[in-house]
Amino acid sequence: SCLCRWFDALLVVELRPMRKPDPCVLVIFGASGDLTSRKLIPALYEMRAIGALPEHFKVLGVSRREKTDDAWRAELAASVQQHAKRWDAGRWAEFAKCIHYFAGDAAQTAMYSGLEERLRKFDEESSTRGNRLFYLSVGPELYESIVQRIEDAALVTEGKRRCSINSSERSWQRIIIEKPFGHDEQSAASLNRTLGRVFEEEDIYRIDHYLGKEVVQAMLVLRFANTIFEPVWNHRYIDHVQVTAVETVGVGNRTAFFDSTGAIRDMIQSHLLQIFAFVAMEPPTAITAEDIRAEKIKAVRAIRPTTPETVATHGVLGQYGKSADEGAYVDLPGVAKGSTTETYAAIKLHVDNWRWAGTPFYFRTGKHMAKKCTEIVVQFKPPTANLFTGIPHQSGKVLGNRLVIEIAPFQQTRLRFESKVPGTPLSIASVEMQADFDKQFGVEALEAYGPLLIDAMRGDQSLYKHRIEVESGWAAVMPFLNSSSATIRKSIASNYAPGSWGPAAADEMMSRDGRAWHNE
Ligand code: BG6
To answer: Is the distance from CB of 81 to CB of 38 less than 8 angstroms?
Structure first.
């Protein structure tokens, strides 16, 4: 019955009519990395458990170290036991048969002919039909060279070199690229150009695991399958929106990566701007990848460029100080001496379009914060004419309606409204209505990567990012990363205590605007 409930869960996340994934080989570059063992393989195992994988399916992990298929399977088994929701030795053994390993240096041309041969053998023995899903789970510095080598080795036969007319027999080659997608606007554009020379846009899957999260997609349903939200979903009724993703963990052993990345690149440019796009977009014409992406692109492009003069009042950066179990960020091994990389960032962006003019969006992310929480807070304006001035209110004043859409750790939506306190004399209190996804539907959320991988095998890009979205996202955050950020970047060392809600300056930024962060 557990399995049935999992399957129901898949149906819930399914926004589009089910199309079966095609037979294929998933080629993972960076097979020995953390992402592969902690996320990708456990997610595929879950997908197999609910019968969502194609019947003819192979995983080929590519990495430098020599290793047999069996040795890799044993390593993965240990990790799946730890990270998948259910462990069943028999089911794993069955699934593990489709997992293989190929030793080679992806940055060297030499290995690609062997790789090609191995893939061809799969096609012959396992009916994978020449369909390849390349997954770049390597350091971003290797992306372009791997794409180039895939091209040189003629592993891409679709797209530009498409010649077959009979589409039912045509094989496809697609590529999934992990974040960080570029380091800034220019490098993202350069990576897009390289990809575009080898793959068609329809075969490029820029992944963002936040788009696999249940509530991000549920946003579409909340907004467009109801009548009561959309009419007030604009600057006339909404005072501001907060998009928050904070974590209790520090940077852990990812210091080298994190110190050259920082919270804005790691979280805001990617995940938080994607959440924003679903909140801010216009209704798509239909629930298709093209229509959804067209509207998301428009929303991200409407973000007003922050001028160098306004960076200081629109952004606050921070670095966590020392805690009981970890040193201050600047003192961690692997962090450059005197590093000014932010582990916390809060930024305010305006959206210049008819729907949102004058309604700011606040974005906030941080490591070592008071709690783990990913949420969207939509704060409505108080009524224009307040009949109840002078009537006692439990919290001192009418607060305005508030919709909180919690994405993690709990999936729930809460709506606050004002209510009369029973009895006399007349007094008012805020109350909340709550819909809890887990309780309501009795299903656990699936690992976000699973449904996303299946989508790529079905050729559905709805939940993947378009080239323009990524580049516009970079344009929106660049002022907080380039030289104009110098003022908010200096003296950030240890400006917030681990376990707190971030630097005091972030609260000041909000109170200057007459607002407050939702720290509940
Ligand atoms: C990753 C970031 O993309 O997302 C990490 O690189 C972050 O720094 C993680 O911890 C958060 O993901 P989730 O799903 O736990 O909210």
So the answer is: no
